[in-house]
Structure formats: C-alpha cells, structure tokens
Amino acid sequence: TRSRKTLLPTPETALYMGAYVQGYCTRIDPRYGAFVRFMDNLTAIVPKLKGGLDISLYETVLCKIIAIDVTTGKAPKILLKPVKARGDKKNSAKTASVSLVDKVRPGDIMGDVKIDSLNFARVAVSLLDKKFDGCRTKARIHVTMANYIDGT
Fold first, then answer.
1. What is the pLDDT of residues 45-92, one digit of tens each?
2. DSSP letter for each residue of 74-129
3. Mean pLDDT across the chain, nearest whole number?
4. Whole-prediction pTM
5. Fewer CB under 10 Å: which end of the chain, C or N?
6. What pLDDT is attached to residue 24?
7. CA distance 137 to 65
8. What CA–CA distance (Å, rounded) separates 30 from 47?
9. For the residues of 18-80, what is the DSSP string, one character each?
10. Based on the number of CB atoms within 10 Å of its own CB, is 64 exposed (0-12), middle (13-18) or buried (19 or more)?
11. Is 67 exposed, middle or buried (0-12, 13-18, 19+ CB in 10 A)?
C-alpha cells in the first residue's frame, strides 16, 4: 500500500490541492456544510455536497484539499473533501450508488443543461442527458479569475 503524508496545517503551511490534512469539525451549517479547524485558527469547509453534513460536531476528520484560493488576504479559502479512513465501513451504503464521476471524463460533452443558479464564482446546473439517469445529476462549474498562461 502507498503511504500518504497527512499535514496538520497552520496559516504558514504551504498548502496545495491534493494535500491530505487533519483537523476537527467546529461548526455545522445546514446551508453550507462542515467547518473544519486546524492549528492557529486556520479553517476550511467541507461543502454539504461533498459530505459536510455527514460529519459530526467536534469529530476529528481526515480530508483532501480539493480547491484553495490564496489570493484573498491573510488566510486562504480552502475547500475539503472527507477521506474515508482505511477499514472504515461508515457510509458504505452511499458509495454503492452510481456516482457522476463514474460517468464523466475530461473532455466529455455534457449535452443539455439547465442553469439552476449563477454568481460570480460558479454556475450550478442540472444535467439533462439520459446517460446521467440513475445518478445525482447536479453539477457546479467553478470559475477562478486568473491570468492566462501561455503554454508555448
């Protein structure tokens, strides 16, 4: 088995997408998800769509960083996804259902969508194509304002 390094981050830690971090749940908000605190009051969120409402208050959680925005002030904005511990059978019934990730690959054409909501940072859409029947068909398109990088 491959080992992975787990960070206990502070505001000075050089964080990156894909890093595994450990903290504890300090607040659960049914509108947004679970707020996870690390050392020196660094916080992040596990969105409700990524399982944030399945975390218990004050539970120690192992998570993977799925998005990070370091352009805003002192503390970065961090989005997390909980990682199921090895041998953990919790939520096994949920993982048996078909996931949208199982049906979509980079470069796929999504077909028709219905826009559910729109703001400066994301678009929430419902996927209408029949190939998405039997799985959750809501998706978000995140928008990050960044300079164009010429790869040539």
1. 999 999 999 999 989 999 999 999 877 767 788 999 998 755 455 544
2. SSPEEEEEE-PPTT--TTHHHHTSBPGGGT--TT-----EEEEEE-SSEEEEEE--
3. 77
4. 0.55
5. C
6. 92
7. 23
8. 10
9. T-EEEEEEEEEETTTEEEEE-GGG-EEEEEGGGTGGGSPTT-EEEEEEEEEE-SSSSSPEEEE
10. middle
11. middle
Q: Is 8 exposed, middle or buried (0-12, 13-18, 19+ CB in 10 A)?
A: exposed
Question: Tokens for 57?
Answer: 């208050």
Q: What's the residue count for the chain?
A: 152
Tokens of 96: 């048996």
Strand duo 122-127 + 113-118: pairing: antiparallel
Span 34-52, mean pLDDT?
91
Q: What angle do CA 126, 96, 52 make, to 5 degrees?
A: 60
Structure tokens at 111: 């077909």
Tell me whether residue 44 is exposed, middle or buried, using C-beta atoms within 10 angstroms of its C-beta: 0 to 12, 13 to 18, 19 or more.
buried
